[in-house]
Each structure stands twice: as structure tokens, then as C-alpha cells.
Amino acid sequence: MKGFPDARPERWLGALALIIISLISLGNVITRYITGGSFSFTEEFSVFLLVVLTFAGASVALRRNRHIRIGFLERVLPPKYRSALILFQALCGAIVLGLITWYGGKLAWQEQQWQSLSPGLGLPQWWYLVWLPVLTTAMLWRLIQQTRDRLKGELNNDA
């Protein structure tokens, strides 16, 4: 496979989140230096964008086969057992991501139904939470792609 497998939407989303975090943090520091006060929205938005950045980065890492795992067993097992181990790893990851997607979606739905507002700015809480099932679904898709490529031998299993 040429180069790295791509996860372009997640890369763009992560880069955008990082740029916005940097800009609002810089703006907050400058404002605090000049006026002695700070913007009220920066912490709430920064935490939200940091979560988006984390999940987007995790999705890119999945697609590029860069997640942390113990590769010792993969290196010492014969190929037929290595395939079973890769499938077991994928199954475990899919279960975790499926649970996060399900319960994250349920939480976002409940927050929308309850019309909960964020503590800092009073924005609808579900605006922040809806990204959890969206990004874990992206991670699940990248896990499927990564597993397929690993089983075909197209990705390095020594990572």
C-alpha cells in the first residue's frame, strides 16, 4: 500500500479543532493581559474542541494502524493464529466503540429531550454531546478498514 491509509475528514476536523483552540486561547491570553479579564466562552469551547480533537485523532490513528497495542503476540504467532488474534482485537474494539456510540447517542438524545443547558454559556448540552456517537462511528468504520487491511497483510503488524 502506498503511504498511509487516509482518514481525511477526521484529519481536517482535528486540524480545525486545534486551530480554533489555539486562536481562542491566544485571544483569551491577550485579552486577560490587556484588560485583566477573560472571555467566558473559552473554557467551555476549548474542552469541547479538545474532545473532538481527541476522537478525530484516534480515528486517524486507527486508520493508520498506529494505536497502542502489544505486538509481541502478533510477531510470534503463526499466520493462521495471527489472523484470529487480529479478529479478536477488532471484536474487542468494536464492542467498546459500539457501547460508546450507543450510550453516547442515548445521552445526547436525553439531553436534547430534557433541554439541558451547558453550565458556562447556557447552550443546549446536546450540541456538544452529539459529536460523541458521530466520531465513535467514524472510529468504528476506521477499525473495520484497518482490520481488513491487516488481515490482507497490507498494514505493518509490528506497530
UniProtKB/TrEMBL annotation:
Keywords: Cell inner membrane, Cell membrane, Membrane, Transmembrane, Transmembrane helix, Transport. It is a multi-pass membrane protein. It comes from the Bacteria. The chain crosses the membrane at residues 12-33, 45-62, 83-105, 125-144. GO terms for biological process: C4-dicarboxylate transport. GO terms for molecular function: transmembrane transporter activity. It is found in: Cell inner membrane. GO terms for cellular component: plasma membrane. Its main location: membrane. InterPro entries: DctQ, TRAP_DctQ. Residues 22-152 form the Tripartite ATP-independent periplasmic transporters DctQ component domain. Belongs to the TRAP transporter small permease family. Part of the tripartite ATP-independent periplasmic (TRAP) transport system. The complex comprises the extracytoplasmic solute receptor protein and the two transmembrane proteins. This is TRAP transporter small permease protein.
